[in-house]
Specification:
This protein is α+β, with helices and mostly antiparallel strands.
Length: about 400
């Protein structure tokens, strides 16, 4: 790696140039596009006076950005979805401060993707990654952070964090995998009989409800629809969690600047009034389900808008995968596959680092076994047939 490499820290996305940044972002990672990150910052959903304070590390060579780590100084653990509250409590019991910590993550977005952003034409990638990770670790430690966390990274990136002595954590999510289905009925045929029957019954109830379901994307989206989706989001999140992470200005901005990545599923009552919807994001080959909301309740409408309509969309558009967000074992019952989720962690207190590393090693083994067991019991017949079980 050349000695003229400059490592630069920023506390805002506002000065980064779009034409440089886009050379770093994989096509299936819309949440690292500059327009998305700037919408979060411009709306004050992240940044100053929030618990997500921007700490971007840039690697610059020949006056161009060649790599980046999108870090955040965190003063709590909300909106991360790799839960570490027990670690924070253990620190408190030991008389130590867990916050602030440094997290390499996408705010409020539990989706797997490349976390080390690096330009494709860069030689000696491994050496560059090692150098910027060491800079991030040194910076985090010198600035008084308790730890450094890399959340929802890819399996391929694990080699970088292992080399830098991070401890790996393994959790799980439920993803819908497109096994070359040509139609929704073909997907149903891959499920056990009782699941096929229940899904058909759920979808039939929506067809008989009088609701009209629309899918809107890209230029077919009216920018003013942000008001509708903000009302859905605000109503559902304030009722469920007491407060919403995202500000209304975030919705307003992405409906103006980011429509090329949006896929909306909208339900209207017989009078034409919007009553529920999902706001989803599309990468090149992956669909990401993100925000569900409703102002009126209908049986099975959540399943129709959050799962079935989007599975239909993924099949029609030949997408490889549909990630429907964190948690939700009801996804598993509808043919979503249990997949491993990777994160890596470094603690600057040596005793804490050793204790948590030992715990994570045991947890990883248990999670691997659990994922295998869950998939063997999956409603998807392919797993059962592979083991010789009765479909």
């Amino acid at each position: 790696m050349s000695n003229d490499l400059e490592l630069k820290w920023l506390d805002s996305f506002s000065t980064i140039k779009e034409e440089e940044w886009k050379t770093l972002v994989p096509q299936d990672n819309p949440f690292y596009e500059l327009r998305f990150l700037q919408a979060l910052e411009n709306s004050r959903s992240i940044g100053f006076e929030t618990s997500w304070q921007i700490r971007v590390l840039l690697a610059i060579q020949d006056a161009s950005i060649i790599a980046a780590l999108v870090n955040f100084q965190k003063w709590d653990s909300y909106g991360e979805y790799i839960f570490d509250f027990e670690w924070a409590q253990a620190y408190t019991r030991a008389g130590l401060s867990y916050y602030p910590k440094l997290s390499l993550a996408i705010p409020f977005t539990p989706t797997t993707g490349q976390r080390v952003l690096i330009r494709e034409d860069v030689p000696d990638k491994d050496e560059l990654v090692e150098r910027i990770l060491q800079e991030a670790l040194q910076h985090a430690k010198s600035e008084g952070h308790s730890s450094y966390h890399v959340l929802f990274h890819t399996a391929e990136e694990d080699k970088y964090f292992e080399k830098s002595k991070f401890s790996q954590r393994l959790t799980h999510q439920y993803h819908w995998i497109n096994r070359n289905y040509q139609s929704f009925e073909e997907y149903l045929a891959a499920l056990k009989k009782d699941k096929r029957k229940s899904i058909r019954k759920e979808r039939e109830s929506i067809r008989n409800s009088g609701l009209k379901i629309e899918i809107l994307e890209a230029d077919s989206i009216d920018p003013d629809l942000w008001k509708v989706y903000w009302s859905f989001y605000q109503n559902t999140h304030s009722r469920k969690w007491g407060q919403a992470y995202l500000k209304k200005e975030f919705f307003q901005e992405i409906f103006q600047t980011f429509r090329d990545h949006l896929v909306l599923v909208l339900a209207k009552d017989p009078s034409g009034k919007p009553v529920a919807g999902t706001l989803n994001f599309r990468g090149k080959n992956i669909l990401f389900g993100r925000y569900w909301g409703a102002i009126e309740e209908y049986p099975n409408l959540h399943f129709e808008l959050c799962y079935y309509q989007l599975i239909d969309y993924a099949i029609a558009n030949k997408l490889e995968k549909f990630e429907a967000g964190a948690q939700g074992e009801h996804k598993y019952l509808r043919g979503f596959e249990v997949v491993p989720i990777y994160s890596s962690h470094m603690f600057f207190n040596s005793q804490a680092n050793l204790s948590i590393a030992n715990y994570l090693q045991s947890e990883c083994e248990n999670t691997k076994l659990a994922i295998e067991e869950w998939n063997l019991k999956s409603p998807l017949k392919i797993f059962r047939e592979e083991e010789g079980a009765k479909p």
